[in-house]
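Hello again,

I reread your note about wanting to compare the complex against the isolated chains. To keep things tidy I'm splitting this into two emails, and this first one only covers the full assembly. Below are the input lines as submitted, including protein chains and any nucleic acid or small-molecule components. They are followed by the predicted structure of everything together. The single-chain runs will come separately.
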Amino acid sequence: MAKSQAVIESPPYGYDLSPEQLHDMYRKMVLIRRFEEVTAEMYTRAYIGGFCHLNIGEEATIVGAISALQPTDYLFSNYREHGHAIAKGCDPREVMAELFGKETGLSKGRGGSMHLYSAEKRLMGGYAIVGDAITLAVGAAFAIKYRGTDEVVMAMFGDGATNIGAFHEALNMAALWNTPAIFVCVNNQYGMGTKVERASAIPEIYKKTCAYGIESIRVDGMNVLEMYKATKEMVDKTRKEQRPTFIEAVCYRYRGHSMSDPDRYRAREEKQEWMKKDAIARFEQFLLDNKVSSQGELDSIKAEVENIVQDAVEYAKNSPEPKVEELYRDVYVPGTRVGRRA
Amino acid sequence: MAVMTYREALNQALREEMERDPNVFIMGEDVGVFGGSFRVTEGLLDIFGEKRVIDTPIAEESIVGVGVGAAMLGLRPVVEIMTVNFALKAMDMIVNSAAHIRYMFGGQATLPLVIRMPGGGGHQLSAQHSHSFEAMFAHIPGLIVVAPSTPADAKALLISAIRDDNPWVFIENEGLYNIRGAVPENLPPLSYGSAAVRKEGTDLTLIGVSRMSILSQEAADRLEKQGISCEVIDLRSLRPVDWQTIFDSVKKTGRLMVVEEGWGSYGVGAEIVARIQEEVFDYLDAPAKRITGAEVPMPYNKYLERAALPSVEQIIEEASSLLGG
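Full-complex prediction:
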């Protein structure tokens, strides 16, 4: 039986990351934060429809985890995945265009906020049924093992997904068949409005994997370096030893479950406590304290990010809507002889 | 020409396709060591090994989910659900994932996936093991849905299903596995969307779904002796439907009766009758009829069960009354 371990302390310094890599992580975190803030604004201004779930507060978890993957590795996500797509290397223009429902969007305007996909970046989709990404990721990992190639698959899901039956089915299969899958549970404390302790008999999610002999670790998901280090270690093990691993990232979402959530189920004080540990502010301080960056460098990254986000909005606004006459496109592969009705 | 059972024909299709394409693999409960709970996959483990014939835990949602994930990366999984009854456990993956992924990602994902499962009642297995869910699957855009009733069709359709890049729900029937029929050597694949005229006739079009096409043929043979000429169509493909064959037949006979084992309301017959009145209403000489399973959870008692399933006698009786007999 593999050991599970709890690590939530953050070491002071010492990572095998170059200043360029550290800056890239910082840029991505700030980009996700600003992208989501502007997304909220665009939603309020009705440029974006449907449900809209934001990653604000989860930037360190997302960037730390996804930075530990190779570009050829696969990622399966849930419906709170704008930041996942950006961290996986998708063009923010195409992410925003998808939120706007445009033909130039990542999913051609057919998926929206909850269903981003990029074959090129190996983002294998955002799924809006809780837990589905976990099972699908095991299928992809199975395919990699079948072919004998050396990619790995990461599934990212929330704490709520670990109470779904398919979570247990999928973890069992992943371990049974030694598939190269890394499970990243973004424990942001709430499944919609229900606190993790009120939904999970074991609120320390990483402990759940002991039933399947999957090595797991609990990480401070508000610390990007800690998150990166832990994920890198698990990714390396999974790739090398061909077995699944599990990471519980303890973090917090600052906004409601979705844009339509009045957020009445938690105390203001609780939120403020978490925001004191804000991942971006802490990482900024780390970069300054360790003389990795000057304030001027960080400011210029922020300015650069602002331009990227505003450009993404302009791109989305100016992009064409999908053609109504193409409503039936892509229900089946091209050439399939199925009419508009069965 | 070889004569074999429906089960053997399916087994042959699987074996030939696995020999042809290393990306094809089989996954399901007891498909390997046990040989398949209906022995469809018997012997395949010995030929292809554990890598390609995979016994899974009892976890239908994830069996289909793993199939979908593997198909997204380009493998060609043939997933077996032990019976349609258990497919309800997997409906989320079948509908929300298999059927929707391609469309909701703007046509960028491809799912060459086959989900096989047998349905049907008549074995005193009562409420939870006797369902016919053809209508439920055929309802869903994004899926190809077929239900062959002969060994040759079973083989030819399964070959097409495995080679096609769309997700298929391939509905077999527990009451058909032992039927025998001729299966030609080098049988060409049979695509979706093709119905078979099993018997030509002039007075009434009888459309049978899955095993009901066999009952329809038997009824037609007996009706012939009473001077009633039935044209029997084996629907075979439920999504898409071969409307042309159906329309042509109804235009000729002027009368239509659909026989299915599933519950009638909102069913396959309901869909066919609705389309008939939209497209060839003027050709009808009598109201189009449906013969379906009784709308009850399947009872265990054999007399009750018999009463809940369509029968040859019922088809004959309804057909006679439709023709004014």
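For quick reference: Chain A is about 40% helix and 10% strand.

B.
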